[in-house]
Amino acid sequence: MEAAKAKAAALIEALPYLQQFRGRAMVVKFGGAAMNPQGDLADILFSLVFLSHVGVRPVLVHGGGHFITQAMKEKGLQPTFVRGRRVTDAAALAIVEDVLINKVNAQLVAKIEELGGSAVGLHSRHGRPLLGEKLLETAEDGTPIDLGFVGRVFSVKAGLINDVLDTGCIPVIAPLAVSLDGQVLNCNADTASWKVAADLQAEKLVLLSDVAGILRDRKDESTLIPTVTKDEAEQLERDGVIDGGMLPKVDACIRAVEAGVRKAHMIDGRIPHALLLEIFTDTGVGTEIVRSRA
Description:
Blueprint: H1 2-21, E1 25-30, H2 41-53, E2 57-62, H3 65-74, E3 81-82, E4 85-86, H4 90-114, E5 119-122, E6 130-134, E7 137-138, E8 144-145, E9 150-156, H5 158-166, E10 170-173, E11 176-178, E12 184-187, H6 189-199, E13 204-209, E14 227-229, H7 230-238, H8 246-258, E15 263-268, H9 274-280, E16 287-290
Parallel strand pairs: 1-2, 1-13, 2-10, 5-10, 9-12, 13-15, 14-16
Antiparallel strand pairs: 3-4, 6-9, 7-8, 11-12, 15-16
């Protein structure tokens, strides 16, 4: 009886959120533990299937850096990074496309179908949902840095993604943009996800990783900051509280809320049902970034 009461209480707590998010797009980005072979992939994907069945419109943007690095090393190529960006020459781009499309994207679509959902893979060989341009980096002395076929997303085919959502399917998007002249570009998945959320006018952007969220002390998860405003997050960056691999994630959240996404979240994908706990409970499990306290 107590277990049944607990389930009823959970449903009652979730009801206002179900009403609020029904019919709204929610962009979820996989990274860190979520894409780790040891991570509980089924738990996270089942949460997406659940959201789809209760009327939310989930969109999945995935990375795959671990698998790309592994594939490059197997072919005798040494991965090189500049400011967190993978230098992507023609040989590396062929591996990036193969891994993201034929391994990661295909696996995610198949697993969603296995769990009772419906999904459509969207990438540079199907739909071309992301339009991009070559990313130009410069050194501190102003010298150009050639990253190869690395790009940034400047536009998203929101109509295409909404068409997929209208069929009841979950769009599964690989971070491969295509330029106006047809060149495939390797893009950062965090950056791509905020642009997808912005162009879809999504209710939320959720970044799933292998960290608890924004911590005042990176060695102490009890210092988790549940909510920060855009301005507060930028101050934490200046203070050095946010640095390293957290910077692109936090910047993606900031850009999303600046572009009109109501809230952006950074949550720990290692926690069972982390996505549902963050969305459908009053306390949540990670850090949310909002435009203002108001």
